[in-house]
Design a protein that fits this description.
three-stranded antiparallel beta sheet, about 120 residues, single chain, mainly beta
């Protein structure tokens, strides 16, 4: 199990945010834990669909946003942009379609949405 997968499993069931605080299109970073147990998740809503990924570019292992809240391409909200080196990722599956980590993927975070709350879903083992 990778470190990211272990953290996702550790925080399964943890609340990320209220769905009402997420615009459309919008993306927000939520940090759970601290130190070695820190998990930074980017939660995205576009066209009503909500998804999430670990907020870490597979190229330089930095967070996607240099400026708070700047994740989505302004002209195409189905694309997440890493502001460090310009890598571009599809929102649907996290695949890098342009930039220095082409063909690598963001790590998906499974979600459970109920009663207006977005949480990390339990993962199957």
């Amino acid at each position: 199990m990778t470190a990211a997968a272990a953290l996702i499993a550790r925080f399964a069931g943890s609340r990320l945010l209220a769905a009402s605080t997420l615009g459309d299109p919008d993306a927000q970073s939520v940090v759970l834990g601290e130190g070695a147990d820190r998990l930074d998740v980017v939660v995205i809503r576009v066209g009503g669909a909500i998804s999430a990924f670990v907020n870490e570019c597979p190229h330089a292992f930095t967070t996607l946003e240099t400026f708070d809240g700047q994740f989505l391409d302004r002209e195409d909200p189905d694309i997440l942009v890493c502001s460090t080196h310009g890598a571009r990722f599809r929102r649907g599956d996290g695949l890098c379609v342009a930039g220095p980590c082409r063909d690598k993927r963001l790590i998906p975070v499974p979600l459970h949405i109920a009663d207006g709350e977005i949480a990390i879903a339990a993962t199957s083992r």
